[in-house]
Each structure stands twice: as structure tokens, then as C-alpha cells.
Amino acid sequence: MAGLADALRQFPPVAHAFAYGSSVFRQEGAPVSKDRMVDYILVVDCPLKWHTANLQRNTHHYASYLRSLGPSAVTAVAENIGVGVHFNSYVPWNQQILKYGVVSKETVLRDLREWTSLYIAGRLHKPVAHLVEDPDLLVANAGNLRTAATCALLLLPECFTEAELFHTICGLSYSGDVRMGIAEDQRKVHRIAQGSQEPLRALYADVLAGPPAVRAALEFEEDSGARRFLQDTSPGARTEMIASLPVGMLAPLARLAGTSGLVAGSAGSEAAVDPGRAWEVGDRVAHSPQCKELILGALQCVVAASSRRQAVSGALAAGSGNAMRYLAAKVSKAWKNEMATVDKD
């Protein structure tokens, strides 16, 4: 962790920071590359002030046209086009290549609590290396992990394995992602879940130990030693779980279930279900024979919208040269991973 944290010394102060991805946590079967970027998320109190200071310290990290336009343009692209995260890629540091995203604490807290985009919240469903810790974010993320487990349970049958649980949790934020199958390895979710079993167990140990929203009982198969779970899949139990989902999930879920009359606001991201009527949405979905499909469809609505916005914002932030370089690297990585899988099979 110390080595990862050392890179933060080149930046202005941050409220919270974590490193994530295959350079930090192993992905099963993924070929090792010395050119792989180390990914960071830097959470700051005020992106405009932070980018103003960082442009003075690290001008070369930014695309040339953004250097000319200044910090206001940097934050405008991230917040008005993307989901609030500005990325600088291919940053050389100490014989490594870094990519770092900068986002406001307010945006992160909202995503953790409401699943407005699942862009940061989804990354935190998987193990990450926290390097600077903000107490508010840690508390909000504890709720985010409980919600991820609840959502995964809604997509799983009455009896399932630990591996199936972790695979489902890791896949939540990739449902509907426009990059999947194009610039991302199609087996990425499997690689993350298989390569991070112990960190995932540690991350979700408290969540699965007993909160009422997670109605799963842990059992062991004596012959294999594998963990298996049992859960209550009755409509009553599912109604309670669905009603506890964040507002970012409930609005598209209400529309898909034919209860759009419960949604206040427009079809945009500000639409929400009155908390007092969340139970009605949960009851409608829980009694539907397409319960699982409706939950998955709501996830895809959230992720597809945010991934499209962030793809455009990311390309603008990187500039044409770095954007093409990054896309080529992602496609190449996905192809190498696929070939590694073929060779293994």
C-alpha cells in the first residue's frame, strides 16, 4: 500500500483516494504486462480548486486544449457531459504509468447512497486499496456494500454458491456498460471474482453476517468445503429487499414494472420514487414472474446511461491522441485476455 500511496505526493491534497483494477488486485488468467496502468480515484472537496492547483503542478497531465481552456473547462466536461469524474491517463511516474480520476466528494456520496450512476459505487463493490480515508465516505460505502449484496441476492436463486454470489456482485456495475464486448474483456467479471476471492470474503464478511436486508444463511458442503447459501425468496422477503434499493434503481424499476405513476420528475436522472411508496414498487416487482429480469433491466438503465456519458467525457478529457491510444490498449488487452483463455482451455 505504501508504494501505491507514494504516487499521491505529486498531487494537491485529497479527501479520499483509492487504487483499483488489475494492477492492484490480480485477475485470474490475465497476462501480466509491465506497461499496465495503475488506476486511482482521487476524491476532492472542490474539483475546480483542485484542478486549478494541479494544473500549476502537473500541467503536462492534461490534454493540450484543456490546458489552454483552464480548470473551469476541465470541471465542466466532467460534470456536464460525464458523471463528474475527470481522468488523466498515461501519466509517467517512477517507472510506472498512472491513470487517475478526480471527482467531488459530494458526487461520490450521492452515488454511494443513491446509485445515481454506479460509476464510483460500482468500483467500490470490488476490493480496492484505500490510501487516504474520509470517514463520511467509509460510512456511505458500508451502505453501498449492503445494497450490492441485496441486489445480487435478488438476481440469484434460493440456493447458490459463494462463487456465484461474488460473480453476481462483481457484475452489477458492468450490466449495460457500453464498453463490454468492445473495449473490455468479456470475461472480466469472471477474472475479477475468481482472482479476488479472499479480498471479497473480507469485504463482505460483515454484510453477510446478519443485517436484516441480507437474508442469507451460510452453509458448508462437507464433501468439497465450498460455501453455499440459502435465502428466503418468498414475495414478502423480496418486497422488503426491493423496497430497500436506492432511489437510482427504484425509478427505472418502477417504469419497467408498469408503475411509472409512482415516479416523480422527468425521465432524467433526477426522477425518483417517493420513499413512502417504495414498498408498492417492491410488491409489484416481487410478485412479477419477471422479477429477476426487471431488476437486471433497472441496473442496465443506470449503467448504460452513465457509461455512455463517461465514454464521451473521457474522450474529450484525454484528447484525440490519448483517447485513441487508450482505446487501442483496452482492445489489445481484451484480445490478449481472450487468447490467454483460449490457450488455457
Describe this structure as you would to a colleague:
The protein has 345 residues and is an alpha+beta fold. It has 14 helices and ten strands. A five-stranded mixed sheet has the order 3-4-2-1-5. A three-stranded antiparallel sheet has the order 6-8-7. Strands 9-10 form a two-stranded antiparallel sheet. The two termini are 34 Å apart.
Low-confidence stretches: 321-345
Topology pattern, helix = H, strand = E: HEEHHHEEHHEHEHHHEEHHEEHH
Share of β-strand residues = 5-15%
Helical residue percent band: 40-55%
Query: How far apart are the termini?
Result: 34 Å
Question: What does the overall shape look like?
Answer: globular
Q: What descriptive keywords fit this protein?
A:
345 residues, alpha+beta, 5-stranded mixed beta sheet, 3-stranded antiparallel beta sheet, 51% helix, 14% strand, globular, disordered C terminus
Could you outline the blueprint of secondary structure elements for this entry?
Blueprint (H helix, E strand, L loop, with lengths): L1 H5 L9 E5 L17 E7 L2 H11 L6 H6 L1 H11 L4 E8 L2 E9 H10 L4 H5 L5 E4 L2 H20 L4 E3 H10 L16 H8 L1 H8 L11 E5 L6 E5 L3 H9 L3 H10 L6 E2 L7 E2 L4 H9 L4 H54 L1
Parallel strand pairs: 2-4
Antiparallel strand pairs: 1-2, 1-5, 3-4, 6-8, 7-8, 9-10
Helix pairs in contact: 2-4, 4-14, 5-7, 7-8, 8-9, 11-13, 12-14
